[in-house]
From TrEMBL:
Protein name: DUF3558 domain-containing protein
Originating organism: Sandarakinorhabdus cyanobacteriorum
KW Signal (keyword) present: yes
Keywords attached to this entry: Signal
Signal peptide: 1-16
């Protein structure tokens, strides 16, 4: 992401092209699912230098699709001083997870994600359950992803406890 960061820094230093008036909403898709993004006041679609910089950032991100972006169009604020990128992990484009299932909670160690999905390999399909802990170790963000066949029958509570325990072990080993 060094290239992407450099692109944003260079674009921020160049006088910005005024963004056009934003539509009331944008529509995009994640996989085959349509999503509506209402445009909040003070934000516009990227244009000019901001559009170029965001395109460079998105090209450098091979793990995510970025179907939408908004930049500031408030007076006195450069577009790239305040912006949003809307990203979806490419591998998750076909997953269907409700918010309560996906956002399994947080504590002092982890933010938790939880879900089930089907994988296909060698002409065979298998349903997997994933428990994820998003944490920070030595000031670096890390996702600890734990996968098991759903057929193993372990509860989601057990899987979340497993990723928390793994995070605690890593934190203890790295932050002495």
């Amino acid at each position: 992401m060094t290239i992407a960061f450099t692109a944003l820094m260079l674009a921020a230093a160049v006088p910005a092209t005024p963004p056009p008036v934003a539509p009331a909403e944008q529509r995009f898709a994640i996989g085959a699912t349509g999503i509506i993004l209402p445009t909040p006041p003070g934000y516009c679609l990227p244009a000019g230098n901001a559009e170029t910089a965001i395109a460079m950032v998105n090209a450098a991100d091979t793990m995510n699709d970025t179907p939408a972006a908004l930049v500031s169009c408030r007076p006195g604020v450069q577009p790239l001083d305040d912006y949003y990128l809307f990203k979806s992990p490419k591998q998750a484009a076909t997953f269907e997870l409700s918010r309560p299932v996906l956002l399994a909670g947080q504590d002092q160690v982890c933010g938790y994600l939880l879900g089930s999905f089907t994988v296909e390999a060698g002409g065979r399909q298998e349903r997997l359950t994933a428990a994820v802990c998003v944490t920070s170790i030595k000031r670096k963000v890390i996702n600890i992803n734990h996968y098991e066949p759903t057929s193993a029958g372990r509860s989601k509570v057990q899987m979340l406890a497993d990723v928390r325990a793994m995070a605690e072990r890593m934190i203890a080993a790295n932050e002495k």
